[in-house]
Every structure is written in structure tokens, then in C-alpha cells.
């Protein structure tokens, strides 16, 4: 069991350079399997899933050089044999995005039925199966594996998703590049990390229209070229450090190369009386003396923070705003429209003395402003829930312990070091 010990109560201040977005890095790494040209990736974080992908590529026969200090990842897949076989990493959800590249290169891929990831409720594989079948793959169950086989060249297709799933959209885009003709996806996810995957693929030679919208067209069979690509700052991490400033009454500036993604995030901070300033490539949160929920003009309605597919507030950011909710005077309803298991951890907040009410699997109300006390809490295997618990602990005088905090390392390799530099007294235990 890995725990974080946090001695809170300090107002955090300083400047932070965030890491790249895990949700952009992983699909890009998976997509590189389509190309035999040399690829250089920069600003690659040293996180658990990148380590797994590095091991998988090496097992497959790729030439890979990962300089962790320089955050560079050099890849050459031309050394993979046509007879190569390797076991997909089973401890990460991103494994499913390896399948298009493996089908294109080897004609077959195998995936265990239970693909791991954050414990956010049911995350079905059926939309991905539909994508692969539409591009000509055969999909079957063989024992504990799902087996994907490509029979001949895939043809272009058009799909209308029932739900704007990020990984389904990314799998469609990657698969379409290996098909003949122009494919189109309707109700596509358009999160910044999906846009970043498209930007990388375009730099590699892909022809994509509509990125950042709900309707994306992809021309198949591009001529891939060598590429040198630098990942953007993670907007999740930028928002998280701004929230840390707000919850502790501090003053933090975070490098932010994409402030255009923050208009709704900024408005959500304003609901708690916290203002974000963007200037010269940096975003700053100078916290108010006390967080207080701003009532709606329609005063009989509860203030809401609704999380849903982009351009809504991302579900991954909902926990950090819940942390603000238990600190701010007033009531807020948090609505997770994505995951039915994303709010069950609220009971741990009561150990800090927080007052919350779970209305149903998707909606939670916080009644903030009460005095909070140090506590020992247990995080589910959800990255930003562990961070939200750390945020609450950092805002309280005294020592708190967050058990099972290891998910933080899945996305933010330098997170604890960074918050320590801002003034939090924190250390890993185990």
C-alpha cells in the first residue's frame, strides 16, 4: 500500500511547469505503430503507462530510446519482424489503442477481456469492436482473450457514435488511416487530447478534416514521414495547480500553452469566487481570502458543475472542483454525466468533516464552509480523486494520510515534487 502523508495548512505559492497530458501521450505512442519512419517525441512524462508501452515496443522488436531526464522518446518500428508477437499490456486502458497498428502491421492482436484502468464504473468494449469490424477486422472470443484479425485491406467507412467516446474516436481515426478511401466519424469526441492526436498524425503525414469538432473525416493510406513532435502542457494539471492555490488560499502561476481551452474552466472557478488570469503563456490563481459559492441569479436553483464530454467540464476535473466545494461556503451540485462510479468516494470526505449528499450515482451535493480536520482516507483507483483528497488535506492544519495514493503516479510523475516546491509538506510512505 502506497500512502501520502500531508502536513497541511500552508498557503501555497510559486511557479510550476506542468507535464504533458497522459491522455495525449498514450494514443500518440499507440499510433506510432502505423509508421516505419523514425519518430522523436518530446516532453514525454515518466509515468507508469509509458513504462509499459516502452517494454511492449521493445518486446515487439522496435528500436526505442527513452531518455527520461531529457523527456525524449525516440522510436523506430521498422525493425519489427512480420512474425513478431507480443502480449499487450493488460494493466492499462490504452492497450486497446494498440490494436489498429498491430492489425496493420501483423494482421492480428489479442486483448484480455478485463482491460484495467481507473475504477470509474462500466467501460464497455463494444464500440471499439464495432469500429474494428467496420474496417474489416474479424473479432472473436478465444478463452480469456478477445482476438482481432484483419483479412485483407480495410475499406473506408462512416460511423455515427451513440456516445462521444474519446478512445473510440481515437481508435476510429487511427484505423481509418490504414483503410482505402475517406472515412468519417459523426459524434466524435473533441477533447484537447483528441485534437493533439490529430495534430501529431497530421505532422506525420495524415490528412484529417474537422479535428476539434463532432464530425471528422480521415483520408486513408497516407505517406507517413519522420516527425519530431513536442507534447503540449496538460490542461488537467494546469487546472489542478490553480485549484490547489484556490483551496489553500495561495498564489500559483502555471505555464499554459493552450489558454483557449480554459474559458469554461475559468467560469467554473468563478462559481467558487476564484479568478484565473492568463498572461504571457502563464495562468495564475491568486486565491481570495475565503472561497464562497456565488449564488445563481435565479436564486432558488442550486449552483451546478456539470461534467460531460468536451466542451463541457471534463469528468476528470470534477474531483478537484468537489474539493473546492467542501471548502467554499455554500452549496454546489456536482453532476457526473459520464461515469456512474465516479462519485462513490465522497464518503471519504466525511472523515475530514465535510458534509456531502449523494443524490444518485451521478449527482453529489457539497455543503461547504465547515471546519475540516486532518484524517486518514483511502483513495479509489482514480487519479484525480487521489489528487482531490491531497488538495483537501493540504488545506487543513495538521497531518493527514491518503492511502492507496499511487494512481497519482499514473499521470503526474513530478506532482509530489512540484507541490513540495510550492510549500506543501508531503512525502510518500511505501
From TrEMBL:
Q: What is its EC number?
A: 2.5.1.7
Q: Where in the cell is it found?
A: Cytoplasm
Which GO terms fall under molecular function for this chain's record?
A: UDP-N-acetylglucosamine 1-carboxyvinyltransferase activity
Q: Which GO terms describe its biological process?
A: cell division; cell wall organization; peptidoglycan biosynthetic process; regulation of cell shape
Question: Top-level EC class, please?
Answer: transferase
Domain Enolpyruvate transferase as annotated: residue spans: 6-418
Q: In which pathway does it act?
A: Cell wall biogenesis; peptidoglycan biosynthesis
Principal location listed in the UniProt entry: cytoplasm
Family, according to the entry, reads as follows:
Belongs to the EPSP synthase family. MurA subfamily.
- Report which reactions are catalysed by this protein: phosphoenolpyruvate + UDP-N-acetyl-alpha-D-glucosamine = UDP-N-acetyl-3-O-(1-carboxyvinyl)-alpha-D-glucosamine + phosphate
What protein does this entry describe? UDP-N-acetylglucosamine 1-carboxyvinyltransferase
Recorded GO cellular component terms are: cytoplasm
Q: What are the alphabetically sorted keywords of the record?
A: Cell cycle, Cell division, Cell shape, Cell wall biogenesis/degradation, Cytoplasm, Peptidoglycan synthesis, Transferase
